[in-house]
Amino acid sequence: MEIKIPSKVKTILDTLEKAGYEAYAVGGCVRDSILGRVPDDWDITTSAAPEQVKTLFRRTVDTGLAHGTVTVLMEKDGFEVTTYRVDGEYEDGRHPKEVTFTASLEEDLKRRDFTINAMAYNPTCGLVDLFGGMGDLENKVIRCVGNPLERFSEDALRIMRAVRFSAQLGFSIEENTRAALKVLAPNLKHVSAERIQVELVKLLVSPHPDYLRTAYEAGITREFLPEFDACMETEQNTPHHSYTVGEHTLHSLVNIRADRVLRLTMLLHDIGKPAVKKTDENGRDHFKTHGPVGERMAHSILRRLKFDNETIKKVCCLIKWHDLRPASDAASVRKAVHIIGEDLFPLYLEVQRADMLAQSTYKREQKQGRLEKVMQTYEEIAARGDCVSLKTLAVTGSDLIAAGIRPGKEIGEILNRLLEEVLENPELNEKSVLLSRIR
Question: What distance, in Å, lies between the first and last C-alpha atoms of the chain?
Answer without folding.
Answer: 82
